[in-house]
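Me: I'm a chemist; would you kindly supply a protein sequence with its structure tokens?

Assistant:
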Amino acid sequence: MRSLIRAAASPFGISAHRVRFGSLLALVFVLALAGCQVAPPVVIPPAGPAHAVFTRTSYTALPGWNDDRVAAAWPAFLVGCKTLVARARTADVWRSVCDQAATIDGRDDQAVKRFFETYFTPYRVTGSDGAERGLVTGYYEPLLHGSRTRSDAFAAPLFAPPDDLLIVDLAALYPELKGKRVRARLDGRHVVPYWTRAEIESGKAQTQGKALVYVSDPVDAFFVQIQGSGRVALDDGTIMRIGYADQNGQPFRSIARVLIEREELGVGEASMQGIRAWGRAHPEQLPALLDENPSYVFFREVPPPAPGTLEAAIDGPIGSLGVPLLAQRTIAVDPRSIPLGAPVFLSTTMPLSDAPLERLMLAQDTGGAIRGPVRADFFWGFGDTAGQQAGRMKQQGAMWLLWPTGAAPPESSGPNP
């Protein structure tokens, strides 16, 4: 889900057109495309109904803090530190605590716990509407089967960004729209919204030569777009890793919700597993169902991390912070409320259970559907077992931001950043 932008000079090397228009055209875009979702990692998701309120508290208020094996999150914290210190806008807040982290034995759980208790202050996260708990969902890195060459066995393509995908940067003309970009295409002399999923699938987009890989199952192709990354076991015996590159700018619509509204599935059945089962039972209706979600994600091939590095040890997909995600210790958040890269203590329950799930997490990812102050997407890891947990997870939870002691607590950008 992660769920969730790039120009030719992007760090991912994805080629796309960036255009800057006059103030009149920018205004037209604001009015005409205001409803378009722009997926992560670069563009902040559309505004939610409430902004975050941070209330200072103590570690004794964190349920399960004393029982959590905090050192399990240490690799994620360290790899995040490298990026936070390297970025000018975050370096001042993070440099001191990250320097201190270099002196800690990460194998010593008590030493790691003392580090956080010494250098970080916990803040309870609530909404300005008074909400103390919110939705916690799950996501994972799937394994697909595919080939770099199209065949009857491998016919569902995963595309790199098409050549006709325009990135319109409105902030160049309106500073108050910083971070706001829209996706579009040219239709003669007119700039119009980019193609929907159904239109892309019917061949209207300029996707010739843009297929990175062809996979065996169109449902797998659909779900990997929702997850935002995955691995493909190729027919030559190698493994290809793919990651989010861009999105068509169309809003996301849940096909689970569509099936519930049609009374095809009950609320308790509308999991990823339930949708797959419905697709197997109704193969002739499946394409039209998938097209109910107009959002479409484009990918890039991700090189493996260098052997012997911390990134290789974590071995997860790359999140919005630009670092690999550590299974069961990283979450996706709404960056308007929770600063990307920050430690967050999460108190929720296991999927379809009342068993507590209380642990230190790192907020290192975002997602187009992750909106609001008390909202998290729990990264379960790689493969089918992780996918089963992620597909069933729809719990309530509470969150505490751990912020460097002595630094002013962050300010939420509110519902209308």
About this structure: Confidence is low (pLDDT under 50) at residues 3-48. The domain at 17-253+293-404 is CATH 2.40.40.10 (Barwin-like endoglucanases). Residues 139 and 390 are 5 Å apart (CA to CA).
